[in-house]
Amino acid sequence: MEQTKVKKRGFFTRPWVVLLLVAAAFFTGNAFGNGVLSFPGQSSEFKSVSGLPENVDYSSVEDLYDTLRTNYDGKLTEDQVITGLKKGLAESTGDPYTEYFTAVKAKEFVGQLNNSFSGIGAELGKDKDSNLIIVSPIDGFPADKAGLKAQDIITNINDTSTTNMSIDEAVTKIRGEKGTKVTLKVVRNRSEALTFTVVRDTIKIESVKSEVLDGNIGYVTISTFADDTSKLMESTAKDLKSRNVKGIILDMRGNPGGLLDAAVSVSGQWLPSGKTILQEKRGGKVVVKTYSSEGPATLAGIPTVVLLDEGSASASEITAGALRDNGAARIIGVKSYGKGVVQQTLCVQGYRQSDGSCSADMLKVTIASWFRPNGENINNKGIKPDQEVKLSEADVEAKNDRQKQAAIDYLNK
Predict the structure, then answer these.
(1) Does 339 qualify as catalytic in the annotation?
(2) Annotated catalytic, 314?
(3) Which candidate in 38, 116, 136, 314 is catalytic?
(4) Does the reported pTM lie above 0.70?
(5) CATH T-level assignment (fold) for domain 116-204
(6) CATH top-level class for 208-279+290-339+369-411?
């Protein structure tokens, strides 16, 4: 999974798919609850609050098209024009979370939601000299099998120089269909020039990892809220409970979000049935749905610290807010990203496919705002920690995780 070193943010809910999204956090080849099922070709069940007329006068658009086709000196197909018009409709909202996807892009989007994609399995980043580097190859995936190593400097991707290339651009170039090849030229130890041809494969990354730290403290990391998160967290909770841990650290730093049902399920590992997790509101006032915990509260009563940072968004903010407002956890770190709106995916044409994508056009559209159990909407504000602990560049360089240590110290009191 070729992942951008600086993660982006996202959050979603299924129906197929009511979601809360910022972008998606990714690995190349790849990384972003219960919603109302949206069938192909159908619009949302909500009544319009936009004030738009039922039909639009497109005469001025036709005039612009005539002017463009008559005067443009370049190649442009009818499909490009239609796709551009559709993108423009979505972008006219001025909402960064409302987007139009072609069928191909919709499939990529759904794959990213579930940490499933085709690539080589390596985290990408930049070194202090702005060289594109392999931060770490993921064990057992193509990059690792091919022999790529951490700190290898990538100088070329398929004969294209990486000089001044962004991480996102590199991710796009390395990503590709399963079974196809990508050639990387690298410099190792700043002296040895090597060439690797890597066969892309399907990359599926587990979203939950856990361990027990010294002092009998459970340490759980949730990287995204994907389709495997609920089951993985359920088994993790049972394991930590059986080991009688005295405290738990739930690390959601850099977690861009994901599926809402996963966030509700994870919260339910701490919260008993009936506890409010969030409310969705239209126009900021009308409650359209309240999400409540269904338990099983396996970890209820175990002192818990949630770690957040500026990369924690949407689903991770919902989980953190639900645990904090219901008295189940303390938050340590820095203020989170702040995404308090909900999106839904709708198939505008064609039909919904088995993987959740659309056979034709898909629209991801903001349908509501979400509110914490305490009644707060965190959009553009984020969640402030109970204990602010910042990491300096020196801390990062020295791998001095002061936030994690602060959580350990708190649980050891």
Answers:
(1) yes
(2) yes
(3) 314
(4) yes
(5) Pdz3 Domain (2.30.42)
(6) alpha beta
